[in-house]
C-alpha cells in the first residue's frame, strides 16, 4: 500500500524541507489540539468539588482562547505548505509528461490513444497529487496523531479504559486492507474506461462533418451512450467500495464509544477515575473518530494514487524509438543529401514500404517525387526527419549519417508541410509565427504573398487576428494549406519538404505558388511530392515511386521521352485541364 510513497521518493527528497516543516507543524497543531479537552475535564472536576474560582475560570478561558489562535496559525502553515507541495508535484509530473510527449515518435502515438493520454494527464495526475497532499495528512493523522491520543488517554486517564475502547481497531485494519485491494483494482479499470471515452469524444468532435455527411448522428450517440454507461458502471463499482468505508468506520467508532462510555461509567462509580476524566476521555474518543476515519481514507487515497501513478509511469517509461546520438556530429550546412540503397518497413509490418532507394541531392536542387497513393512518398520524408528507427541503408546529410546528427539540428534544417495540415486554435498570425516566433507583420505578409494568401486575408473578419478555431475549422482546406505553407516559408529552412501540400488549391493558385517558390528557394533544397504533375515539372530531378521503389527518374523532358507512367499521368491531367478551360 505504501509503495506509492517509495515511487515518489524522488519528489519528497527534493522537497524534504517543505514536507518536514509541514509534518512537524501538523504534529504540533495536533498536540495543541489535545490540551483543550484536559482543560474542560479540569474545570469539571473543580465544579464537582466546588473549588472553581473566578480567577481560575478566567485563566482557563484566556488560555483556551490563546490555544485556539495558536492552533489556527499553525494549522494554516501546515495546510498551505503540505497542499502547496501537492500542487507542485502535479505541475512537475504534468510538465514531464508534456516533455515526454514532445520527444515521442509516431510509433508511440500509434500504440497509445489520445483520449487515454489525456486521462493520464488529468484525472490520474489529480489522484497522484492527492496522494502527496491528503495522503500525507491522513498518514500523519492515522499514525502519529492517533498514537498521541491513545498515549494521552492511557497515561493521563486510564490504560484499562483506553485498551477496552480500542478493541475494534484490529477488526478495522483487516476490513480496510480488503477494501483497499478492491479499490485499486476497480479504480484502474475505471480510469482505463474514462480514457477510452475521452478518445471516443475526441474522434467524434474531429469527425463531426463526416458523421453528419453520412447521417451517423444517432449511431454515434448510441456508441457514446454505451461508452458512458461503461464508465458509469466502473465508477459505480468504485463508489460501492468507497461507500463501505464510512459506515464501517461509524460502526467501529460507535462500538468504541459504547465501550468507553459503559466501562468508563463503571470506573467512575469505583472511584478509579473522576467525572472530569470521563468527560475528557469521551472528548478524546470523539477526536479519535477522525484518525480512525483517516485510516480508511489513507488506504483509499494511496490505492487510487498508486493505480494512477502506475498508469503515468507506464507512459513515462516508454523509451523513444529514435534517440539522440551520445556524441552528435556537427554539420554546418546541408550541401548534399544522399540516399544510399535505402530500405524501410514500419514497425510490426513485414512488407517494405521503401526498397533500394538511391539518390543524391545537391544544395539548391528541387526534387519532385510522384507516384500512386501509398507508393512511399510520405514515408521517405518521415525518414528524412528521422521519425522512425530500423533504416536499412543510409541517409546522409553533407556526408554524415543521419544517426550521427542530433535530432534538433536535423529538424531545424527542415521545413515540413505535411499532407494533413495542423492548425492551432489561435490566430492566423500566431499560426504563422510558429515557424518564426519573433516574425514581424511585414515578414508575415511577405510569406502570405508567397503562399498566395493575401487576397484571402483581406476577406477574413479580423485579418491576421482572425481565430482559426479548433484545428482550423473556420478555414477551407485550401486556406489551411496556404497558411501551412506560409508557416514553413517564414522559417526559411535549408531543406523544404512539401508533401502534397497544394492538393486543395486550384491549378492557377498552384502555378503562382510554384513560381514564387522557384524565386524564393534559389540555392536552397526543396522536395515536392504531388499527385498533380504540374507541381513538379520545373524540378531539377523527378523520381517516380511504385511500391516503394524508384521505377522512373529524370527531368520532366527526359520522363516524357521515356513514355512511362509519368508521361501517361501528365497527359491525362493536361487533357483534364483543357476540358475544364473549354467548359
From TrEMBL:
Question: What are the TM regions of this chain, as residue ranges?
Answer: 21-44, 56-89, 127-151, 157-176, 251-269, 281-302
**Per its UniProt record, what SUPFAM superfamilies does this chain match?**
ABC transporter transmembrane region (SSF90123), P-loop containing nucleoside triphosphate hydrolases (SSF52540)
Q: Which residues form the ABC transporter domain?
A: 337-572
Enumerate the GO terms in the molecular function aspect. Answer: ABC-type oligopeptide transporter activity; ATP binding; ATP hydrolysis activity
Q: Where in the cell is it found?
A: Cell membrane
Q: Which Gene3D superfamilies has this protein been placed in?
A: ABC transporter type 1, transmembrane domain, P-loop containing nucleotide triphosphate hydrolases
Q: CDD domains annotated for this entry?
A: ABC_6TM_TmrB_like
Q: Which GO terms describe its cellular component?
A: plasma membrane
Q: Which UniProt keywords apply?
A: ATP-binding, Cell membrane, Membrane, Nucleotide-binding, Transmembrane, Transmembrane helix, Transport
Pfam families from the UniProt entry:
ABC_membrane, ABC_tran
> Where is this chain primarily localised?
membrane
Among its keywords, does the record have Cell membrane? yes
Membrane topology term reads: Multi-pass membrane protein
Every ABC transmembrane type-1 domain range:
21-304
InterPro entries given in the database record:
AAA+_ATPase (IPR003593), ABC1_TM_dom (IPR011527), ABC1_TM_sf (IPR036640), ABC_transporter-like_ATP-bd (IPR003439), ABC_transporter-like_CS (IPR017871), P-loop_NTPase (IPR027417), Type_1_exporter (IPR039421)
**Protein's name according to its UniProt entry:** ATP-binding cassette domain-containing protein
**UniProt organism field:** Ornithinibacillus caprae
High-level lineage: Bacteria, Bacillati, Bacillota, Bacilli, Bacillales
Amino acid at each position: 500500500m505504501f509503495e506509492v510513497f517509495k515511487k515518489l521518493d524522488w519528489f519528497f527528497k527534493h522537497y524534504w524541507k517543505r514536507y518536514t516543516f509541514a509534518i512537524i507543524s501538523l504534529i504540533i497543531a495536533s498536540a495543541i489540539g489535545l490540551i483543550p479537552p484536559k482543560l474542560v475535564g479540569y474545570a469539571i472536576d473543580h465544579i464537582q468539588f466546588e473549588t472553581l474560582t473566578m480567577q481560575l475560570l478566567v485563566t482557563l478561558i484566556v488560555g483556551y482562547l490563546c490555544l485556539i489562535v495558536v492552533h489556527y496559525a499553525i494549522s494554516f502553515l501546515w495546510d498551505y505548505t503540505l497542499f502547496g507541495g501537492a500542487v507542485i508535484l502535479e505541475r512537475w509530473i504534468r510538465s514531464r509528461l508534456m516533455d515526454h510527449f514532445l520527444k515521442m515518435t509516431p510509433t508511440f502515438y500509434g500504440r497509445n490513444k489520445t483520449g487515454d493520454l489525456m486521462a493520464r494527464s488529468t484525472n490520474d495526475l489529480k489522484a497522484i497529487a492527492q496522494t502527496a497532499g491528503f495522503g500525507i495528512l491522513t498518514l500523519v493523522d492515522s499514525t502519529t496523531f492517533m498514537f498521541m491520543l491513545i498515549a494521552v488517554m492511557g497515561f493521563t486517564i486510564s490504560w484499562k479504559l483506553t485498551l477496552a475502547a480500542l478493541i475494534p481497531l484490529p477488526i478495522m485494519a483487516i476490513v480496510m486492507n480488503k477494501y483497499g485491494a478492491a479499490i485499486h483494482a476497480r479504480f484502474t479499470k475505471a480510469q482505463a474506461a474514462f480514457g477510452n471515452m475521452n478518445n471516443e469524444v475526441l474522434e467524434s468532435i474531429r469527425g463531426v462533418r463526416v458523421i453528419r455527411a453520412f447521417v451517423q448522428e444517432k449511431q454515434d450517440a448510441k456508441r457514446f451512450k454505451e461508452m458512458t454507461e461503461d464508465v458509469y458502471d466502473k465508477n459505480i463499482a468504485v463508489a460501492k467500495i468507497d461507500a463501505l468505508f464510512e459506515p464501517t468506520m461509524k460502526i467501529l467508532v460507535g462500538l468504541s464509544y459504547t465501550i468507553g462510555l459503559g466501562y468508563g461509567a463503571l470506573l467512575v462509580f469505583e472511584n478509579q477515575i473522576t467525572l472530569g476524566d470521563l468527560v475528557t476521555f469521551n472528548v478524546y474518543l470523539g477526536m479519535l473518530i477522525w484518525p480512525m476515519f483517516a485510516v480508511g481514507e489513507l488506504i483509499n487515497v494511496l490505492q487510487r494514487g498508486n493505480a494512477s501513478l502506475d498508469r503515468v509511469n507506464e507512459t513515462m517509461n516508454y523509451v523513444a524509438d529514435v534517440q539522440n546520438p551520445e556524441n552528435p556530429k556537427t554539420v554546418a550546412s546541408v550541401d548534399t543529401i544522399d540516399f544510399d540503397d535505402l530500405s524501410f518497413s514500419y514497425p510490426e509490418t513485414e512488407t517494405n514500404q521503401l526498397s533500394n532507394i538511391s539518390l543524391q541531392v545537391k544544395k539548391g536542387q528541387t526534387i519532385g517525387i510522384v507516384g500512386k497513393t501509398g507508393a512511399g512518398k510520405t514515408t521517405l520524408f518521415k525518414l528524412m526527419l528521422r521519425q522512425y528507427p530500423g533504416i536499412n541503408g543510409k541517409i546522409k546529410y553533407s556526408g554524415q549519417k543521419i544517426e550521427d546528427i542530433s535530432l534538433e539540428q536535423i529538424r531545424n534544417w527542415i521545413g515540413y508541410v505535411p499532407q494533413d495540415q495542423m492548425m492551432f486554435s489561435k490566430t492566423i498570425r500566431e499560426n504563422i509565427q510558429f515557424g518564426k516566433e519573433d516574425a514581424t507583420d511585414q515578414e508575415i505578409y511577405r510569406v502570405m504573398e508567397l503562399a498566395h494568401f493575401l487576397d484571402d486575408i483581406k476577406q477574413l473578419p479580423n485579418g491576421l487576428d482572425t481565430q482559426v478555431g479548433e484545428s482550423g475549422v473556420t478555414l477551407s482546406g485550401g486556406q489551411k494549406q496556404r497558411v501551412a505553407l506560409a508557416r514553413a516559408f517564414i522559417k526559411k529552412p535549408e531543406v523544404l519538404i512539401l508533401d502534397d501540400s497544394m492538393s486543395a488549391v486550384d491549378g492557377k493558385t498552384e502555378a503562382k505558388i510554384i513560381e514564387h517558390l522557384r524565386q524564393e528557394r534559389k540555392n536552397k533544397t526543396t522536395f515536392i511530392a504531388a499527385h498533380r504533375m504540374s507541381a513538379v515539372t520545373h524540378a531539377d530531378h523527378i523520381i517516380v515511386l511504385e511500391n516503394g521503389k524508384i521505377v522512373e527518374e529524370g527531368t520532366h523532358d527526359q520522363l516524357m521521352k521515356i513514355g512511362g507512367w509519368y508521361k501517361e499521368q501528365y497527359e491525362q491531367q493536361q487533357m483534364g485541364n483543357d476540358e475544364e478551360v473549354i467548359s
